């Protein structure tokens, strides 16, 4: 009988009882359908028939119609101390896991599209690695910056979900026969998503996933049909008309001079004690360093959090930051250099702020920006969210609103104040772009410092302020 399994490429099914159940050794066995009670050594020996390896053998699967997973796990635990059984696979698991992966924020829709295109067109795995590295490196940076257990667990959950998605896909793809989705069904599907309030990016990712799956199994792509394209175009028009682009308008307001100077002036200079002499405030020194480096360097929040002392290089005109990776350079294939100028006014100088903070905190290596303990000593480095909190707290100390008008700190609750002062760490980067534009810098010059790959991205920051430039409405004299 064994030789029949090697005669051709057709699938073979063998119905077995006790003898072949525990004594049959065939490397090509890749699936087992169980409809009898198993326990103890018999369970281990039976299911272990799948453990043999063979070239191009698909991932083994077990469809068990009878046994309790806890019983099977107990049987294996007697022989394998690290044995475990994943939960039964829910047919909807792929959708649930896909939504969690999308919301984690470690990749963009375009990156997933690029990965799919490379996978479908490449003949080797090496071509895929640069695309995957963009996501992997972003995840690694987030893991390195996650010092709180809750933040670290959230980052690690992405890896667990990715593995679970892969396993669910491997399993379901072997027992579910994929059929081409009719364009009409796809059109109704995305229409229902839009009616439920799904964002444009969410619907776009669903379409990309459908396109990828159909191409993967050699089926016609339903998303390329005229019917789907027409419905999708209509959905995008409706989203735009109902405020879908509002996020660009309502992005974090820019933090720039003269408001930035007010925020710097509000940073504490002394830490007072009742039991010992007053000391220079490390919180104030750290905050001034973060605000000035973030503004003049036009750095992203993640870049501020990851910034290392070793990345700072002295220059005749100030400091040069050499970023080994960034949002637009995740594989480190090019030099990402950022200039920090040395200014005549020491109170506004980012270089002096770095030097002062490092001297007071005794920092000579490792993370530049760190927490400050209640005892006025440097702690571990700041996370992404920690950087954001520093900016928000600094603006609140100054009591300023986006209009530049003072906010009554005594009579404004925390929630109300957060709504009236919607600044974030991104406000520093936005502030640099907006301020440089107002001082006559071109989009190309701004992009040199911000490292934007597209000048259109720079213009998204400046389009609201530049609407007044060379506009006849300002010359009406009314």
Overview of the structural elements:
- The chain has 478 residues and is mostly helical.
- It has three domains: 2-77, no CATH class; 93-246, DNA polymerase, domain 1, CATH 1.10.150; 259-462, Intergrase catalytic core (hpI Integrase, Chain A), CATH 1.10.443.10.
- It contains 20 helices and nine strands.
- Helix 12 (259-265) crosses helix 16 (384-398).
- The longest helix has 27 residues, at 149-175.
- The radius of gyration is 29 Å and the shape is globular.
Q: Which regions have little confidence, pLDDT < 50, spanning 5+ residues?
A: 245-250, 409-419
Could you tell me the mean pLDDT? 80
Please bin the fraction of helical residues. 40-55%
The CATH topology annotation of the largest domain reads as hpI Integrase, Chain A
Spatial extent as radius of gyration: 29 Å
What is the 3D shape?
globular
- Secondary-structure element order, as H and E? HEHEHHHHHHHHHHEEHHEEEHEEHHHHH
Q: How far apart are the first and last residues' alpha carbons, in Å? A: 98 Å
Quick structural summary:
With 478 residues, the protein is mostly helical.
Q: Topology of this protein?
A:
Blueprint: H1 18-23, E1 31-34, H2 40-47, E2 61-64, H3 69-77, H4 93-104, H5 109-121, H6 129-145, H7 149-175, H8 183-195, H9 200-216, H10 226-241, H11 246-249, H12 259-265, E3 270-271, E4 279-280, H13 282-296, H14 301-306, E5 312-315, E6 318-323, E7 336-341, H15 350-361, E8 370-372, E9 378-381, H16 384-398, H17 414-420, H18 426-438, H19 443-450, H20 455-466
Parallel strand pairs: 1-2
Antiparallel strand pairs: 3-4, 5-6, 6-7, 8-9
Helix pairs in contact: 2-3, 4-7, 5-6, 5-9, 6-7, 8-9, 8-10, 12-16, 13-15, 13-18, 18-20
């Amino acid at each position: 009988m064994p030789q029949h399994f090697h005669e051709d490429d057709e699938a073979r099914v063998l119905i077995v009882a006790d003898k072949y159940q525990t004594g049959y050794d065939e490397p090509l066995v890749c699936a087992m359908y169980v409809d009898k009670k198993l326990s103890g050594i018999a369970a281990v020996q039976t299911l272990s028939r799948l453990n043999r390896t063979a070239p191009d053998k698909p991932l083994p699967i077990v469809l068990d119609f009878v046994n309790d997973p806890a019983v099977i796990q107990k049987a294996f635990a007697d022989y394998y101390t690290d044995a475990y059984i994943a939960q039964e696979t829910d047919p909807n698991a792929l959708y649930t896991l896909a939504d969690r992966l999308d919301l984690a924020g470690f990749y963009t829709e375009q990156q997933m599209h690029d990965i799919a295109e490379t996978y479908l067109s490449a003949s080797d795995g090496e071509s895929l690695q640069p695309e995957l590295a963009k996501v992997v490196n972003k995840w690694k940076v987030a893991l390195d910056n996650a010092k709180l257990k809750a933040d670290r667990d959230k980052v690690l959950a992405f890896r667990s979900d990715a593995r679970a998605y892969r396993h669910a896909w491997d399993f379901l793809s072997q027992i579910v026969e994929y059929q081409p989705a009719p364009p009409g069904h796809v059109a109704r599907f995305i229409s229902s998503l839009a009616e439920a309030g799904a964002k444009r990016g969410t619907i776009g990712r669903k379409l990309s996933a459908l396109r990828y799956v159909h191409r993967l199994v050699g089926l016609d792509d339903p998303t390329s049909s005229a019917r789907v394209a027409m419905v999708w175009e209509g959905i995008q028009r409706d989203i735009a008309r109902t405020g879908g682009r509002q996020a660009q308008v309502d992005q974090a307001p820019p933090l720039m001079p003269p408001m930035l100077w007010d925020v710097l002036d509000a940073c504490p200079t002394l830490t007072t004690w009742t039991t010992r002499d007053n000391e220079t405030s490390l919180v104030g020194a750290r905050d001034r360093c973060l605000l000035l480096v973030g503004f003049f360097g036009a750095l992203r929040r993640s870049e501020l959090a990851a910034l290392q002392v070793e990345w700072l290089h002295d220059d005749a005109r100030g400091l040069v930051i050499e970023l080994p990776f960034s949002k637009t350079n995740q594989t480190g294939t090019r030099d990402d250099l950022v200039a920090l100028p040395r200014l005549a006014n020491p109170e506004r100088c980012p270089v002096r702020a770095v030097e002062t903070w490092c001297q007071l905190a005794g920092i000579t290596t490792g993370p530049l920006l760190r927490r400050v303990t209640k005892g006025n000593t440097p702690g571990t480095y700041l996370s992404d969210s920690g950087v954001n909190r520093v900016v928000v707290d600094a603006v609140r100390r100054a009591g300023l609103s986006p209009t530049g008008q003072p906010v009554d700190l005594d009579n404004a609750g925390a929630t109300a104040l957060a709504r009236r002062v919607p600044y974030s760490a991104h406000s520093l980067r936005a502030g640099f772009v907006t301020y440089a534009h107002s001082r006559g810098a071109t989009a190309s010059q701004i992009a040199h410092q911000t490292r934007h790959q597209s000048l259109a991205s720079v213009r998204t920051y400046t389009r609201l302020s530049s609407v007044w430039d060379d506009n006849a409405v300002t010359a009406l004299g009314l």
